[in-house]
Amino acid sequence: MLLFLFNSILLGVGLAMDAFSVSIANGLSEPHMRRLKCTAVAGTYSVFQFLMPMLGWILVTTLMGWFSVIERFVPYIALGLLLFIGIKMIVECLRGGEEKEARRLTVPILLMQAVATSIDALSVGFTLAAYELPSTLTASVIIGAVTFVICLFGLWIGKRFGRIFRHAEVVGGVILILIGIEIFVKNVFF
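and the corresponding structure tokens:
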């Protein structure tokens, strides 16, 4: 049991790295983000990191044949979402004419980021298929909790540097694009 918990924590740390990077990017682009919004952002990533392994487990245990058709499109979806968001951030920052308020993290953008960064966690659900539902649920809760803490830390880092760096949103956009490319390359070529 102790080994299972330890492995779930390590799994959570590994899965949270994309969300951590995106959290830094969000903190860079919105350095004056309030604590409540930071909590909501980290909570959104956390919920998706919890849900995706559960969804993967359900798909493997019930609909494996159907999901294998969709599985190969997952990296393309993540790449598309993160490219769209990253390029949008860069263009808006470089235009400079728009108000900063218009570039704030919105709910639709946050949800796209949460889906794009948690797609890897979907694959984890396949490996959890060997476990019964209570163990899968426990692992998913741990993954979500670890993600929450790591993302809060990422937002804090981003906010600190976002106050200093004038064009931090460009850096944030580049980070999102690189994460999208990394997810794509890792899942398509390796």
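(Above: one complete record from the training split.) DSSP finds seven helices and no strands in the chain.
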